[in-house]
Here is the input.
Amino acid sequence: MQKPSVLMIYTGGTIGMINDPKTGVLKAFDFKHLSNQIPELDRLNVKLTAISFEKPVDSSEMNPEKWAEIAQIVFENYESYDGFVILHGSDTMAFTASALSFMLQGLSKPVILTGSQLPIGTIRTDGKENLITSIEIAAAKDPAGNPRIQEVVIYFEYSLYRGNRTSKISATEFEAFSSPNYPELAVAGVSIRYQLEPKIEQRELSLFTAFDNRVALLKIFPGFNVEVYKSLFDFKLVKGIIIETFGAGNAPSGELFSELIQSYISEGGIVLNITQCSTGSVEQGRYETSSFFQAAGVIGGFDLTTEAAVTKMMYALGKYSNPIEIREVLEKDLNGEMTLS
Here is the structure.
């Protein structure tokens, strides 16, 4: 049987770093010699091809242009490979995974993001296991020959998560990610146990990368001064605002805050309400302190993560100019990013 083929794309991040023996400084290594660092890769029954960004990017420097570059690479090579593994810094990995889920719609092959907390040249690195298992999953087929995973996902420390459901929760632990409102897609132990089977269907892959990043993120806190944030509600500069609220979507209902929101929406601005809680969902109108959002036309974001909310807003604003169409997209579950209650 022909070996499954996997394209590995190195964008940057800790996983691709080794210590320079002369200076002791971390630097990116040449991925053409990857098997020197991870000889176990030669034992995988996979045809592996590795390419790298011309200049590796620290994950803190990721932006819509870099997301588009990754998506374009996958799109252009889609017919030539069975799966894709993207090596990425962990700090913004969940943002990139969410963005790719909206840029690459109609996937029927795996696009797996992974990385590490320790450089791959470190003896105790978590990078080796993360990379080896990611490649295994990217190449995995079910008994009928269909890919076991058919979406954008994150693999980290024995767990496979839906990309647009994931958040980074630790800067120091190997278990750095969590998917608080959606179960793991697979768990790697002695064997890889796939928890959820994909819906096998013929889909045509589409690419959309024209994200609009004129988006603001406002996190409510007790005693926040509305005057400080008035400039965010300028529709000439900001096209969409995401508000992280308390609990099930609650916020202080002061007169000025309410007026700013109503005026902004009447001009064509989009406001999306998501919860600060790591689990649970927005239920606008459940309490009096969220009923004014409902009346003003604020969109309830259900259980969207911050990462998914930000990237979905950029996607919706980039694809549509009509507020009604933008609202329809934000209220719809496009790629499993939220649970509609």
